[in-house]
Amino acid sequence: QASDHPFDLVTTASPLSNGAPGDYLSDTRHRLRARGLGRSREIVELAQNSSHNPFITSDHPDPPLPTNTAPASVGNPGSQTSEFLSASQPSSSTPRPNRRRRLSRSPDNLGPSSGIGHPPRIARETAQSYPSHFLGRPDDGRPPSPKRRRLVIMRPDGISTENGTSDASNELIASASRKTGLNGQAATNGSSHTNGSKIPSQASSYYGHNREEVTRILIQSLYELGYNGSASLLSSESGYELETSGVATFRSAVLGGRWSEAERILIQSFRNAGSHQVDRKSSEEETLILAEEADRNEMLFYLRQQKFLELLEARDLASALSVLRQELTPLNFDVERLHALSSLLMCSTEVLHAQTGWDGSVSSSRERLLGELSKSISPSVMIPQHRLAVLLDQVKQTQINSCLFHNTAEPPSLYSDHMCDRNDFPLDVSVDLTQHSDEVWYCEFSHDGSKLVTAGKDHNVLIYNTTDFSVIHKLTEHEDGVAFASWSPDDSKLITCSQDKKARVWSVESGRCLLTINHHRQPVTAAAWAADGESFVTASLDSDAQLRHWSMRGQSLYTWKGGFRVQDCAISADGRRLVAADTEAKVHVYNMLTYEEDYCLPLPSKPTSVAISRDSRHVLINLAEGEIQLVDMETTAVIRQFKGQKQGEFVIRSTFGGAAENFVVSGSEDSKVYIWHKENGNIVETLEGHISGCVNSISWNPADPGMFASAGDDSALVSREQSIPSSRTSSTQRYTLKWAYAD
């Protein structure tokens, strides 16, 4: 007879195995159809009563499952279902078989598929069909095994061990039916676990690191290495996606030059960030999660600036002007930068590349733009570019910084911790060369390390070959002491500065004087080459023309006015900045493109020299009161101070040293050479190679980190790792050039 009750359940009992106690139910093959909750309770109690089932005896004890006997509302269908399930639980005083088979998933015992609430009942009976030790509640009080713990959470989403339904906890397992992306946003390319969820068989962290962060960084790195299949497999296996669909769309728009689409995503993202009513679809597919410090106008300015520059490069001046007037100007962001952009309208493509830092590749400039924009996007949804490489670089740099004698150009291996031996450091003096006849005021290696120039009080300039230590040229045309010399970027030319108020430019190959600058009325103290090697700046004690920019034809390109005298100057390797130290305890920093002064840095005492790092980021300032300051040229902050050398009366020129410029090196009035570690400021070594007088200048070979030179009142010394034949040793005269080597 067909049932018309909305909560009928058809139950078919079947044996666990042949000959098992369940055969009693199997043989009868009863199909019980229950009508109404009361009749159902009677049928279940009858089937479990030991008087009707001889196989349910006390010989098979097993604690019953806990029941929820809370009354359910008859008027609520869900409550009736819960009451039926609750009534189906065995009584705590009634033993039940030790072995029960899982409920068969055949159509016969699943019941009508159209019944409301049937899935919860089926799942509940499935759970009740397992003995308690399969549900992670061991009888002996011991914690369940990992396998048993996994079975605890093997239930469908929305099913709870309590009456009714509940959402599956993200802390237990992420449902395969729940499509999620980064930070809980929906993913459009397959299923994945919500970020922050835990995979059941995995620990929640990776040796103290966030598992999600580590996994997503690995996925990014695999893509960057070209292992796309492995990256996709890792994403699928871990359940973590690299990016949300919104980030992927934004990335594609920027790299593809679809500026309107990129702007729309940005504007919508800022609108959502400022509103509590966020459209779900746009939040998942077309918006970004922004960093707290993100600035709307700044990000739009970067996008429109890229658009403007690309139009300029294509020589579409009308469209570029339109973008400048109608899109960039209304943002009212970085007015100074806006003026600089407007000046590019009349520039050639070559000048455009030089002033903007472009290499002529649109794709690479867009990559840089995306990297800049990513700083304003939350890293939880858009990992910064090359994140693993950056972290590995930081690990290497940390090891280098902690290595007291690190002096090699080879990067440390990632396989083991790094430490350099002190014996590999150039420390000892071993060779004397008799060339200068008086105090040596200056020394400097060429950029390729193949030559060394020394200049001194005897009016002479000597150029040495660092391979066999022979003198290549002896330049004798100056009429007074020579205090400075500087190599051109390609080492083909050399400029020397003398107290005879002249600067001379020499051909390194021939030793011939190419140009003489005799326009200064006071001694020329220093000079610096422009990045192109076709012009240079001279510094002098002449307060009317303390700094001048010259062409190789002897034409004065620009004269800085300031009414002060300059002791030293240097131009950064990127050609952007000119740094000048005056005699009034100040350092002036100029823009070499505009000739404008960027800033003036006051100092506690008179500076005697300046040296700029190879990366053009830091400047080393030697002060007359026995202190050296390392200054960040971008922020003007004093990063570190180095003390210990003796100074007060004479000009001493300090410099960076080592393979990666890890050291700060300076002479001293106590005839010693001081070497500090740049990162911690500690003194690494104090060398006593000079006999007497002041050590005036230091230079470290940029091509050979095992060689450095020092020029002093008594001589010039050079240290090197490898030894040379003793036959190279000659005179013991006072004013000589000494070459020193570490064992």
Automatic annotation (TrEMBL):
Alphabetized SUPFAM superfamilies for the sequence: WD40 repeat-like (SSF50978)
Listed GO CC annotations: GID complex
Keyword Repeat: yes
Record's compositionally biased regions (Polar residues): 47-56, 67-87, 160-169, 177-206
UniProtKB keywords: Repeat, WD repeat
InterPro entries: CTLH_C, WD40/YVTN_repeat-like_dom_sf, WD40_repeat_dom_sf, WD40_rpt, WD_repeat-ST_regulator
Keyword Repeat (UniProt): yes
Region of interest (Disordered), ranges: 1-27, 44-206
Domain of life: Eukaryota
First and last residues of every WD repeat: 433-474, 475-516, 662-686
GO biological process, any: proteasome-mediated ubiquitin-dependent protein catabolic process
Segments forming domain CTLH: 243-319
Any matching Pfam family: WD40
SMART domains: CTLH, WD40
Record protein name field: CTLH domain-containing protein
Organism: Penicillium cf. griseofulvum
